[in-house]
Specification:
By secondary structure, the chain is an alpha/beta fold. Helix content is 65%, strand content 10%. The two termini are 66 Å apart. The structure holds adenosine-5'-diphosphate (ADP) and magnesium ion.
Length: 576
């Protein structure tokens, strides 16, 4: 919460200025009924036209100032709200970008997205409304009661008598309504999830003839949403009629008691007219105050969710080294380019994803990694890139521990294709370049090495062809080749390919291997693949199982020494 307030502080001057204008406008609004009452009782009866014009003019002036002041103040409030949220959202976005991979795992991506969108939006709306009504409503409420007290204490008493009832009903019903809406929101979330799964998974659902099952699932959540919506609306719809009944009852009482008092000569008719206006003003203000409270509580929940991210301590595990201090070039004392020394790591700190991993690769050599799903292959490259901090052991590049390197410098060394990597809705060219401003020839060379030119040339737009969201307008193999080109471009020191050619046909895959060997001789390569043929020419091959190395050597050695490798080879290449 403190964090959010620190965003409001710089705007305090503007806010106070706006609120002062609002104050003036509200006072003007409060004056009008009083002037009216004064005119009815004291001026009109004298039939002095000049005086009537004069007081009438005063009313017009008050009303005009009121309107302009309110409009100005509301615009000011909107501007303050906009600037506060803009800064907040910007910092939140920046902060999310600095979160470590384990922190992102902890918060989860959908939650980060909703904090960045729905929650900041809630805060924005509340900051605006608070400025618009936060001053106005209390002034109208208190000022109104004070003025009515001077007009006639007895009638004010009726007003004060009715107020607690109305306040009670509004807050009781709204509280109930808010909790119902909260649970409705949760049901809507699951409805959205089911819809999203259904629509993105529509092919699978059809392929497995699961449409009926899914329809049933949708029917259930849909019914849940509509039932909850009905209940919440029913409860909330009670609000208006009950408040109206009490309100009108109050008005009737004012007129009856007022008439009685006029007859007795205690007050004049104008007072009743003014009272009816004040009654409306005061009760509307009261409704606004209750609404403000409800909004505030909702925004507080959002503010807590946003602050959680803003206040999260920088993950000490990934504390970064200053740019330039890495000194990689001078420390080439190691004969190995990449070295893992007895590395162990666990995502959840309970069971190890990998352990006892040791290997080394010389510059320009290649390491193939093969093993069953979940054996820790992808984890190895994530650790090498410094996305997670290892629990045990050391990872060295050119003899320098990666913990002692600046992360940006470290990551600049790699060209990488992650498993299920991501393409952006931009042109093929921009997807390969990825903001690095590489020269055209470099991009072209990368695309040629990635065997991507044939389909790029086929398209009438060539490199400028726009890739649709998640690369949906490309085939699996085309996507992989754009991703490979991205990894090749920029001539990285180290190439990491995680399952990067699974969608390529054998011939293209073979040509790709040849081109990597030929064009990237000096580049150190780690290639994860489930096909033995794709990695058998690597200088070394590592076989992983359950996070441990069960075989290490070249193809021929492994066939003899590693039963698992032998078996995979038999299945893929044998005569079985
Ligand atoms: P592979 O690439 O060999 O299929 P991974 O390296 O992706 O395997 O995963 C190794 C193990 O770590 C698996 O048991 C997987 O469930 C677990 N794992 C991977 N990523 C995460 C994560 N972000 N959070 C928790 N566990 C994970
Ligand atoms: Mg993997």
């Amino acid at each position: 919460m403190k964090t959010i307030i620190s965003y409001i502080k710089p705007e305090l001057k503007r806010m106070i200025w706006g609120l002062s204008i609002k104050f003036v406008g509200t006072i003007m609004d409060l004056c009008i009924p009083w002037i009216l009452a004064y005119m009815i009782d004291n001026i009109i009866s004298k039939r002095d036209i000049k005086q009537i014009y004069l007081w009438g003019l005063l009313m017009v002036v008050c009303a005009t100032i009121g309107v302009f002041a309110n409009v100005y103040a509301n615009r000011n409030a909107a501007a303050v709200g906009r600037d506060v949220t803009c800064n907040l959202r910007y910092d939140l976005y920046k902060k999310i970008n600095t979160l470590s991979s384990s922190q992102i795992d902890y918060f989860t991506v959908p939650s980060l997205i909703s904090r960045l969108t729905t929650d900041t939006n809630n805060i924005h709306r509340t900051i605006c409304i608070m400025q618009r009504l936060g001053v106005r409503a209390p002034i109208l409420l208190i000022g109104g009661i004070m003025i009515t007290l001077t007009l006639d204490p007895v009638l004010t008493f009726i007003l004060i008598l009715i107020m607690p009832f109305i306040a009670f009903f509004i807050s009781f019903i709204s509280k109930r309504g808010v909790s119902l809406y909260m649970s409705l929101q949760k049901s809507i979330d699951s409805l959205v999830r089911v819809i999203r799964e259904n629509i993105t998974g529509v092919k699978v659902i059809k392929a497995f003839s699961k449409a009926d099952y899914e329809r049933e699932r949708f029917y259930r959540v849909n019914k849940d949403v509509s039932e909850k919506d009905t209940t919440a609306s029913m409860v909330m719809s009670l609000n208006q009629p009950i408040v109206n009944i009490l309100f009108n009852l109050g008005l009737v009482l004012v007129v009856v008691v007022g008439a009685y008092r006029v007859e007795k000569g205690a007050i004049q008719v104008g007072v009743i007219v003014a009272f009816l206006s004040y009654f409306t003003i005061i009760l509307t203000a009261m409704k606004s105050v209750t609404k403000l409270f409800i909004m505030y509580f909702k925004a507080e929940a959002s503010a807590i969710r946003v602050s959680e991210i803003l206040e999260v301590e920088k993950d000490l595990d990934i504390e970064d080294v200053d740019m330039g201090k890495t000194n990689l070039k001078n420390s080439c004392k190691s004969e190995y380019h990449i070295q893992f020394k007895n590395v162990a790591f666990s995502y959840n700190k309970k069971s190890d994803a990998i352990k006892n991993i040791s290997f080394e690769i010389k510059t320009g050599d290649s390491l193939g990694i093969i093993g069953p799903i979940g054996s820790g292959k992808s984890t190895i490259i994530l650790l090498l890139m410094g996305f997670y901090k290892i629990d045990e052991g050391e990872i060295l590049i050119n003899g320098v521990n990666i913990d002692d390197m600046n992360k940006a410098e470290l990551r600049n060394m790699f060209g990488v294709v992650f498993q299920n990597d991501y393409l952006f809705s931009k042109s093929i060219y921009e997807n390969i370049d990825l903001g690095r401003n590489l020269p055209d020839e470099e991009i072209k060379k990368a695309a040629i090495s990635a065997q991507a030119m044939d389909f790029i040339d086929q398209s009438e737009y060539g490199f400028q062809k726009i890739i649709s969201q998640k690369g949906n307008n490309l085939s699996g193999g085309q996507k992989q080749r754009v991703l490979l080109a991205r990894a090749f471009a920029g001539n990285p020191e180290i190439l990491l390919l995680d399952d990067a050619s699974s969608a390529l046909d054998f011939k293209t895959d073979m040509r790709l291997r040849e081109s990597i060997l030929e064009n990237y001789k000096a580049t150190t390569k780690i290639i994860i693949d489930s096909r033995i043929n794709s990695i058998k020419k690597c200088s070394k091959i590592m076989v992983l199982d359950g996070g441990q190395i069960v075989g290490y050597g070249d193809h021929e050695e492994l066939l003899k020494s590693c039963p698992m490798y032998f078996e995979i080879n038999e299945i893929q290449n044998g005569d079985l």
